[in-house]
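Tutorial handout. Part one gives the primary structure; part two gives the three-dimensional structure as tokens.
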Amino acid sequence: MLSRLSRPKALTVCALPLVALLAAAAFAPLPFSVAQPGMTANVLGENKGTPVITITGAPVRKTTGQLRMTTIEATNPDTDVRLSDLIDSWFATDQAIMPRDSVYPSGETTKEIERHNTEQMEQSQDAATEAALKYLGRSDDGIEVTLKLSDVGGPSAGLLFSLGIVDKLDGDGSGGDLTGGRTIAGTGTIEADGTVGAVGGVSLKTQAARRDGATVFLVPKAECADAKAQLPKGLRLIPVTTLKGTVTALTALEKGKGSVPSC
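Part two.
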């Protein structure tokens, strides 16, 4: 049994391993990435001097609004993120802590990840083109669509690509811009049948959208709560589940007729 005088020494000795463990945790790399709002690009315009959407085989209408796809930027997969980085990010409204596997789900090297993201982008572009032409009933018209967006990977721009194609070929169906002249941003994957899928990082993408002038943000319906968490002032959310529903909502917003869904 320890005497009263020896008890503080015993507590000090017991505390030493805990202190060492905390010190090691503070400097050890952790399986997380720190993300922040990334670049946005108007799919109706140019990116780095090259048109994002090029259509041949059909007349293309001139557009006046903007449809901006959004991105997030995350620490590189080979960058060590430590406890101090997570603590700093926890209190920053323009940063988010994300499991590294959710940001870089496949591959361990930067080249493997870049290759995977490029493949996803190409598949997304193919699906976006097919979905848009199916929606317009012009799948068999011999229309060719080329999509180019440098330095961006992954499938999350699919919805905006489809909307850009629809706007360039048909607008709101009556000669007006699908955007109504607004700057509209958004995110969401797209399937060939027009189904919109969730993406991730939407609270950061809304900040990027508002920073670059957007007043409306299209968000996959399943991610409404995340989008509302830190919604910038002056940005209106429109939840979407399909390409057809998205076009219907934008047309109602543009014409001021019909209901526009909200989160």
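Part three, for discussion. Helices lie at 7-27, 83-90, 100-103, 110-136, 158-169, 202-211, 224-229, 243-255. Confidence is low (pLDDT under 50) at residues 1-28.
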